Amino acid sequence: MKFPSLAVSALALALTACGSPDETRAQDSVFEPAAERAVPRDAAEVKASFAPVVRSAAPAVVNISARGVQTYRDPFWGQFRQQPTGSVGSGVIVRADGVVVTNTHVIQGMNEIVVGLNDRRQFTAKVLLADERSDIAVLQLQGVEEPLPVLRIDVGEDQQIGDLVLAIGNPFGVGQTVTNGIISALNRTETGISDSGSFIQTDAAINPGNSGGALVDMDGDLIGINTAIFSRSGSSSGVGFAVPATMVQRVVDAALDGETTVVRPWLGVKGEPLTAEEATRMGLDRPRGLKVTDLFANGPAARAGIRQGDVIVAVGNNEINDQGGLNFRIGTRAPGDTVAVTLLRDGREQRVNARVQPLPGEINLEAAVVIREGAMAGAQVLALNPAIADRLLGDPFATGVIVTQAPRNSMAFAQGFRNSDIVLAVNDRGVTTANALSGLQRGSRVEILRRGQRLNGTMR
User: Fold this and answer.
1) What is 69-125 written as a DSSP string?
2) Cα separation, 447 vs 354, whole angstroms
3) Residue among 131, 135, 203, 390 flagged as catalytic
């Protein structure tokens, strides 16, 4: 049984190869006072070397070679055939017994993974958890008999724009390479990589093969996993993105707890960035915050007292400016955690505590049913709940019934239904169950959502 693939994951994979993200937004916290920094004072300091940091960090950065088999359809004979496929990337040892972090797209669909250490030792690896949404995968090296070098995951988030960083990885498969640069931006959202991502941007050269490699600070700590580049040529253009250590740690914790998926909690809020005009009307010095446009009934936000029209400006000490930033901050928490949400209401700032929870509903894709009668006969459909809507569409607020399969020889296909269509209404009445699509008669008016566009049609 096949289901619609996540558009978010597919886009992230393309971006890591030769990305072309949309315009991004940085959300720079104003809640914590900046620690003091100093520029080089003389020529001797300018000539200072990164060698001590490299000596400390490089042994824990590994090369990854993955192999698999790809099935394709022969365009001439029309038969399905198989051919070997593979990928080369990087990874980071985060536990001495051989726990390695890399990008999901480096190992996805592969059945043989070989990890090469800096000292040329090699180990096979098995996948403990591969999270498509964050593009972070956790591997376990096999046959480790002695402690391996590790990089400490720094979740302190005390980085600042302009801080020096090193990117360590295996670009183009040439072997371990170190590049240096600075942090160009923090909390980059709306990159097109993920709807729940908030990335560290750096100008340290990152190229294909660096995927899954380390972004380290001057203490030699892991502050991010390099995952994507902005490039029109496929090579580094000085705009690279790394998954922050907080999300890396969240995925690692889930893997070590024996989970096979990362259960992301939610706040039950949907919103849009505050505009300049709205900020002026509210008496703010600048546009900031996420205006709440929708609340899930009896969800965490509603129970905490958040209302439609409130403006969420922070989660904990982290400023929020858009939906992606909110999704990321909540997604780094564990289900059941209590988070402090700062919001603006009636011109005043206040703080509420919300206990975040998993998305309602079960992700049971096997519950899809086949319509046997009527204009949609032959279609395989599944009623959306927040958990399924988030998994398939990246929008837990989506409602309706999704068409998971519309075979070409079915009545549903002949009527114009396609895979991933969401049936919103029949005869102007909202649809929430698969039964509502059984026995559709000629002349029935149907409203669907297809790739973000609402379409209306009449059954023939």
Assistant:
1) EEEEE-TTT--EEEEEEEEEEEEEEEETTTEEEEEHHHHTT-SEEEEE-TTS-EEEE
2) 36
3) 135
Neighbour count for residue 81 (Cβ, 10 Å)? 10
| Interior angle at CA 82, CA 70 and CA 109, nearest 5 | 20
Task: Pick the catalytic residue from 196, 211, 231, 410.
Answer: 211
198 is catalytic: no
Render pLDDT for 112-150 as a digit per residue (tens, 0 to 9).
999 999 999 999 999 999 998 899 999 999 999 999 999
Q: Is 211 a catalytic residue?
A: yes
Q: Which of 9, 87, 105, 221 is catalytic?
A: 105
In this structure, of 124-133, 182-191, 316-325, the range with the lowest mean pLDDT score is: 182-191
Total-model pTM? 0.79
Distance CA 449, CA 165 (A): 44
Mean pLDDT across 153-168: 92
Active-site residue 105, yes or no? yes
Q: If you average pLDDT over every residue of the chain, what do you get?
A: 85
Report how far apart, in Å, the C-alpha atoms of 129 and of each of 99, 169, 288, 348, 383 are: 11, 21, 36, 43, 27
Q: For residue 400, what pLDDT is reported? A: 93
